[in-house]
């Protein structure tokens, strides 16, 4: 009889339930199949969901019990050995779906009677979340277990558990919706309908992808745990898709309709419950990694093929266990299998470094030039390429199972992690110690953050982080914070995706319909007016909607379009060379390069770099070439200043850092200059405050103030100035 539902206990063991009332157990290592239990004849199983493995920070190696919903209106809590611990009357008519939340503290069931009910772990009714006139065919928990997504005819509804909270509802398909799934890592929603389409939505109900109509209704959709892939099942059809919707592979197995798809815990294989009584198993192979002249393909579950396109050399890499995750970057290939981690150097494929893993199921690998990060269900682990554990950063309420490449970023000295509990917060750690950076306070933004990225080069003290928030605005800020509030500066709007270059601090992003490259993002801290001049923009309408930047290596940007095709774009190599010269303080070479290239963006970058490094002679040449005469004059006036301190202070003023300039002058004892700076900026109150505090030049401040008021024909209204004016007579000149 038809198989209605499947569920994995470990990465190699699957349970399936069928209309013949049997629960079967499949062991993939030994290829054995055994009957766990035969249910009573009046129970026809519909849906099965294993109790989550990680509860309260403790991680079991395998699931212990599952919930089974059935056509008689009950759900059954059943142990791994097949003992029915409890049966609960839940709905009138069949219970069509049951799902545990991520913490295992609550169970949601939906039924033919149109009700959505929430139950406790032990099967006590907590609340009836919704009631409607049509059957609810599918249900899924939101990533934070605080919302529930369910179907209502052709509508999808997201309802928070809190009473009176706003309910989101939208028409999703032209036919009945049969299945839905919501991923906790990427926060995206899948839906499948009788209109023969599957669709991808964000959690606000915006459509990101809609498939072409298939021949038959789509009967199942399911996310892989890490949210990178999903599977789609229909009549004689199994499809593997990327999270953005395009299809990697289409199989036409002889299965009847596939009613339920379950991914294994490590995301390497899936099982489908088929209408003709079969259980179908599928393994994901042929993943592809590229870096410079190497392309690597996983050709079998335990074998990779390395192809060097320069000399057509081919190497085969064999592994003891199946490959779960891999990453290729910075001259190293890092591969995690179910028990071990392998580190290969691209110079030598024969002698990998191998070490054992604690948890086994690595969900993310990130690389920087000097080290790499492994993320698994238990924590974050930073390793050197020699296989030494460097650090293991932690923060309160850390949930590592929902981190992905958009929410974690690694550079040679810093690790940044976006918090899930409070999406406005980024935790920043020192890579070598795993301790929070600076004063230990995380970085906080005013709205929720979507994607973060650290720059890769340069000095630790100048490390920058770029991030996109919910409104798709791009911000940049410095990572190091010594007590003083660092400015978070907005440098772009409507930014879809971003990436830092691997060899110099150049940032690229796609904003609206343009590819933008910020050749020197640090400009915002040096001379804000220059930023637009350091920007390279190119029309990006050829990338269609929702393109993603995959890599930015050397001077090549790789972009994946919404249909899955890759586009390679080359940007000018000169800005990277300029970065290199400046980091080596080769100012003459930098000027020579700009004269050779004759490009305004290059001069603008050089001007900002020179001011940032306090090289005013080069700055003068660069500003003159960009035609900013007022700045050239100001730089000239700085050169003539008598003392080093006042020169430094005026360079700070040039970049708009008035506070630091004033502090510097006061420390050097140049009180009059500090007062004069405030007078020039019309900071009258501060000028008077300094004069009174240091008991000097009060009359000067008052004289300037009076002259200012006379020029504008105004009367003095400021109480403090009136008070001091009485006590001080100002010589008329």
From TrEMBL:
InterPro entries (alphabetical): Beta-prop_IFT80_2nd, TPR_IFT80_172_dom, WD40/YVTN_repeat-like_dom_sf, WD40_repeat_dom_sf, WD40_rpt
The IFT80/172/WDR35 TPR domain is annotated at 602-730
A biological-process GO annotation: cilium assembly
Which coarse location class describes where this protein primarily resides? cytoplasm
> Keyword Repeat, does the record have it?
yes
Boundaries of every IFT80 second beta-propeller domain copy: 286-574
Tell where it localizes.
Cytoplasm, Cytoskeleton, Cilium axoneme; Cytoplasm, Cytoskeleton, Cilium basal body
Q: Where are the WD repeats?
A: 88-120, 170-202
Please provide one cellular component term from the Gene Ontology annotations of this protein: axoneme
**Which keywords appear in this protein's UniProt record, sorted alphabetically?**
Cell projection, Cilium, Cytoplasm, Cytoskeleton, Repeat, WD repeat
Q: Does the keyword Cell membrane feature in the UniProt annotation? A: no
Q: What quaternary structure, including any partners, is listed in this protein's UniProt entry?
A: Component of the IFT complex B, at least composed of IFT20, IFT22, IFT25, IFT27, IFT46, IFT52, TRAF3IP1/IFT54, IFT57, IFT74, IFT80, IFT81, and IFT88. Interacts with IFT88. Interacts with IFT57 and IFT70B.
What is this protein's function per UniProt?
Answer: Component of the intraflagellar transport (IFT) complex B, which is essential for the development and maintenance of motile and sensory cilia.
Protein name, per record: Intraflagellar transport protein 80 homolog
This chain's source organism reads: Brachypteracias leptosomus (short-legged ground-roller)
């Amino acid at each position: 009889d038809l198989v209605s539902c499947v569920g994995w206990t470990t990465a190699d063991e699957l349970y399936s339930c069928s209309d013949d009332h049997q629960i079967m157990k499949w062991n993939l290592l030994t290829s054995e199949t055994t009957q766990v239990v035969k249910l009573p004849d009046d129970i026809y199983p519909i849906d099965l969901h294993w109790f989550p493995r990680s509860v309260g920070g403790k991680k079991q190696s395998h699931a212990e019990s599952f919930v089974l919903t059935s056509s008689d209106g009950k759900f059954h809590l059943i142990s791994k050995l097949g003992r029915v611990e409890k049966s609960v009357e839940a709905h009138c008519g069949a219970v069509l779906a049951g799902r545990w939340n991520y913490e295992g503290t609550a169970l949601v069931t939906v039924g033919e009677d149109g009700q959505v009910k929430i139950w406790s772990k032990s099967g006590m009714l907590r609340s009836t979340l919704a009631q409607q006139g049509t059957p609810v065919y599918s249900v899924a928990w939101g990533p934070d277990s605080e919302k529930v997504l369910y179907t209502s005819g052709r509508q999808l509804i997201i309802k928070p558990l809190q009473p009176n909270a706003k309910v989101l509802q939208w028409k999703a398909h032209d036919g009945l919706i049969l299945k839905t799934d919501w991923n906790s890592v990427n926060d995206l929603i899948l839906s499948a309908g009788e209109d023969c389409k599957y669709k991808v939505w964000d959690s606000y109900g915006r459509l990101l992808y809609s498939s072409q109509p298939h021949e038959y209704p789509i009967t199942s959709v399911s996310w892989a745990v890490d949210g990178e892939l999903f599977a789609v099942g229909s009549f004689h059809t199994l499809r593997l898709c990327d999270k953005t919707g395009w299809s990697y592979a289409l199989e036409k197995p002889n299965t009847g309709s596939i009613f339920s798809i379950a991914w294994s815990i490590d995301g390497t294989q899936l099982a489908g419950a088929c209408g003709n009584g079969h259980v179908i198993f599928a393994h994901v192979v042929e993943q592809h990694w590229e870096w410079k002249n190497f392309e690597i393909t996983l050709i079998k579950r335990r074998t990779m093929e390395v192809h060097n396109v320069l000399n057509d050399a081919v190497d085969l890499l064999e592994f003891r266990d199946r490959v779960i995750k891999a990453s290729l970057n910075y001259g190293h290939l890092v591969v995690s299998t179910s028990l071990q981690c392998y580190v290969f150097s691209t110079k030598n494929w024969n002698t990998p470094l191998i070490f054992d893993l604690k948890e086994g199921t690595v969900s993310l690998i990130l690389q920087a030039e000097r080290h790499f990060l492994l993320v698994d269900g238990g924590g974050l682990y930073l390793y050197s390429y020699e296989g030494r554990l460097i650090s293991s950063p932690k923060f309160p309420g850390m949930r590592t199972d929902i981190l992905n490449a958009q929410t974690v970023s690694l550079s040679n000295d810093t690790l940044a992690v976006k918090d899930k509990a409070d999406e406005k917060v980024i935790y920043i750690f020192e890579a070598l110690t795993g301790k929070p950076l600076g004063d230990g306070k995380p970085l906080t933004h005013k709205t929720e953050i979507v994607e973060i990225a650290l720059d890769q080069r340069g000095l630790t003290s100048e490390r920058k982080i770029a991030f996109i928030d919910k409104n798709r605005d791009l911000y940049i800020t410095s990572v190091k914070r010594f007590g003083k509030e660092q400015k978070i500066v907005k440098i772009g709007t409507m930014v879809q995706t971003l990436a830092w270059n691997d060899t110099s601090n150049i940032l690229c992003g796609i904003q609206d319909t343009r590819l933008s490259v910020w050749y020197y993002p640090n400009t915002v801290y040096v001379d804000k007016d220059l930023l637009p001049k350091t920007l390279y923009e190119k029309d990006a309408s050829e990338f269609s909607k929702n393109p993603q930047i995959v890599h930015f290596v050397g001077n090549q940007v790789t972009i994946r379009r919404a249909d899955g095709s890759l586009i390679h774009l080359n940007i000018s190599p000169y800005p990277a060379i300029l970065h290199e010269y400046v980091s080596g303080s080769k100012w003459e070479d930098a000027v020579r390069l700009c004269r050779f290239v004759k490009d305004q963006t290059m001069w603008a970058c050089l001007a900002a770099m020179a001011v940032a490094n306090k090289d005013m002679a080069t700055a003068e040449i660069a500003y003159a070439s960009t035609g900013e005469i007022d700045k050239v004059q100001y730089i000239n006036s700085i050169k003539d200043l008598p003392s080093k301190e006042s020169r430094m202070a005026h360079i700070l003023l040039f970049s708009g850092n008035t506070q630091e300039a004033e502090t510097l002058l006061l420390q050097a004892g140049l009180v009059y200059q500090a007062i004069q700076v405030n007078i020039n900026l019309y900071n009258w109150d501060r000028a008077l405050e300094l004069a009174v505090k240091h008991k000097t030049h009060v009359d000067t401040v008052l004289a300037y103030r009076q002259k200012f008021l006379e020029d504008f024909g105004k009367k003095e209204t400021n109480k403090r100035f009136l008070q001091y004016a009485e006590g001080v007579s100002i010589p008329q000149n």
